[in-house]
Design a protein that fits this description.
about 210 residues; alpha+beta; two-stranded antiparallel ribbon; 7 helices
Length: about 210
């Protein structure tokens, strides 16, 4: 009778005279666990080469199957794909500075700056994260991702977001010469009367200069 890898029983494959040996039985059981785990991963191999063609909901389901704790269903489609692709390696490298950088980079498309405690006068074992936020961020979700992959003994003091933008700036200048003239005279030297209309209102020209008569 055939035997599937998913329910393999190595003990049944051993010669009859070996099956009663406790060491052989334990060895067979250990191999069963290994082969069954491999069998469970086989369907995933087909999924793995289809990540770039999966929809958002399909990626969400795959992340759940893989137990990617820092996965965010609200991420952009490309960030979902990048997060799943990086998940296995991130689990292996969890607890390193690299893992923190890659988790944020994959999930939100931006490379964070990690500042160790001695770089900003903090307490030993603490760190900060600076984000050049080209897009809006949910700080709670970014914080969750960092907490899952950082070293357990490392303490996150805060996440600081800043933005940089490029814009065209035109600068010009001109030189203006201003001249101010002041003439003074005594009344005895120069007397004049200004013109008024029949209502006694001062008459001015179109530029606002008072009309005089002298």
């Amino acid at each position: 009778m055939g035997m599937k890898l998913s329910d393999v029983d190595i003990l049944r494959l051993l010669p009859v005279f070996m099956r009663d040996n406790e060491a052989n039985r334990a060895f067979a059981k250990a191999l069963n666990d290994i082969f069954r785990a491999l069998a469970a991963d086989i369907p995933r191999l087909r999924e793995w080469d289809q990540i770039d063609n999966m929809t958002g909901p399909e990626l969400d389901e795959m992340a759940w199957e893989m137990s990617v704790e820092w996965y965010d269903t609200g991420m952009e489609l490309e960030n979902k794909r990048a997060t799943i692709k990086a998940a296995v390696l991130l689990k292996e490298k969890s607890g390193t500075k690299w893992a923190v950088v890659e988790a944020v980079k994959a999930g939100y498309g931006v490379v964070p700056e990690i500042l160790e405690w001695y770089e900003y006068g903090g307490e030993p074992g603490h760190f900060r994260v600076n984000l050049n936020a080209l897009n809006a961020f949910d700080f709670a979700k970014v914080h969750k991702a960092i907490e899952y992959v950082k070293r357990a003994s490392a303490h996150l003091d805060g996440i600081e977001m800043y933005t940089t933008e490029e814009t065209d700036l035109f600068v010009g200048f001109a030189t203006v010469h201003e001249y101010e003239y002041a003439n003074t005279m005594d009344k005895e030297e120069f007397e004049f009367d200004w013109l008024v209309n029949e209502l006694g209102e001062t008459l001015c020209d179109e530029l606002g200069n008072v009309l005089t008569e002298y």
